[in-house]
Amino acid sequence: MIHRDAVEIALAVLKRLQSACERICIAGSIRRHKPNVKDVEIVYIPCYQEEQVDMFTWEPVPATERRIRELVGSGFLEFDTEVKRDGPKYKRLIHVASSMTIELFRANPDNWGLIVALRTGPAEFNKLLVTKPWGGGAMPAHLSMRDGYLWGQDGRIDTPTETAFFETIQLPYWSPWERTGERLETYLRDGHQ
Predict the structure, then answer these.
(1) How do residues 65-100 score in pLDDT, each as one tens digit?
(2) Distance between CA atoms of 102 and 179, rounded to whole angstroms?
């Protein structure tokens, strides 16, 4: 699908989810301004609302869960029946009117930067981000990524912004459309890390 049409779909989904989110943004190839887009990726931090789970217990639950179910119930979205994903951190749906795949990725305020960076991609750039220097990658030897967070010797490292994420792994912040595996390979090969 051409970029302009994919942006319209992404904005329609974002508009319908926004009230259930603390924060939300479009990622993936749309954010990288690619001329052709194969799916819509959206990263969000949900708002939480108290729901009664039994007679005496109330628990905070993501408001996005209910909102997504409403969008499916209304026929705006449907769950992908071929690649089934409906977990707490990743949901794969289809925009019914266009058949465009919609991927929703949940983040938290303290890992927003890492999740947005990874969901923006592209894949060859991400592979270098998570690979250690001895494998030709950019991930500093003293750091690792797991469970959606960056970890160091002293524990979890918060990355509330993309800038914080790139600073922590000692890389410059490049605009999404400047991020390519080739550019990062050249940067690393030239001894910047």
Answers:
(1) 999 999 999 999 999 999 999 999 999 999 999 999
(2) 22
> What predicted TM-score, i.e. pTM, was given to this entire model?
0.91
| Sequence-ordered alpha helix ranges (H) in the chain | 3-17, 28-31, 63-73, 112-120, 123-130, 162-168, 181-189
Same domain, residue pair 70 and 121: no
Q: What is the DSSP string of 60-107?
A: EEEHHHHHHHHHHHTTSEEE-SSS--B-SSEEEEEETTTTEEEEEEE-
Residues 148 and 81 in one domain: no
Range of the domain at 68: 3-106
Distance CA 125, CA 49 (A): 37
Looking at the structure, tell me whether residues 55 and 145 fall in a common domain.
no
